[in-house]
Amino acid sequence: xxxxxxYGDSLTWGSxxxxxxxxxxxxxxxxLNALLGQQHHxxxxxxxxxxxLWNDPFLEGRNGLSYLQAAxxxxxxxxxxxxxxxxxxxxxxxxxxxxxxSKGVEKLIEKSRMPNTYDFAPPSVLVIAPPNIxxxxxxxxxxxxxxxxxxxxxxxxxxxxxxxxxxxxLNAAGEVEPSTLDGVHLDSQANQQLANAxxxxxxxxx
Length: 206
Known about the structure:
Elements: E1 3-8, H1 10-13, H2 28-36, E2 41-46, H3 64-75, E3 80-84, H4 98-112, E4 124-129, H5 147-151, H6 154-164, E5 168-171, H7 188-202
Parallel strand pairs: 1-2, 1-3, 3-4, 4-5
Helix pairs in contact: 2-7, 3-4, 4-6
């Protein structure tokens, strides 16, 4: 049995556009587990607002780098780590772009390969470039001012990071786009499509 840890933000957690959380069976990690079969264990460790490595002054505990080692040891040994972070890095108050987000992802990859308390073998890593942000509306509009343009570069920088660090790679923007209800989060159909795309990437690599 392979243990797969999905380390992400609200797109992994299962946020409904403009508020709420999808039932478990509609979140892409759960759908992925169903596609892979019960011989695998897919863990949804998404958290709304999580960044790659930035401390958010308005949300506590969202620095992804600070919690990754604890997550890997909590659920370890982990065979495959799926990283889909960076959307929240583009919030206006961080004042960074897709390049900086990709460097944050690279730090997460490095952290996952460091020695740990229990001598777990380092996991394989799948880097997912997040979906492009559409025109943000509703409750997320102010936070993501200017993020739509920045997100267009996710795939380029993330692919470079994945290749350089010998990781699997998926460009989510080539598979799904956010709901027009808020321009950031995924509808239920996109969750299914993303799970299908991830399954296709990893089925021969776990």
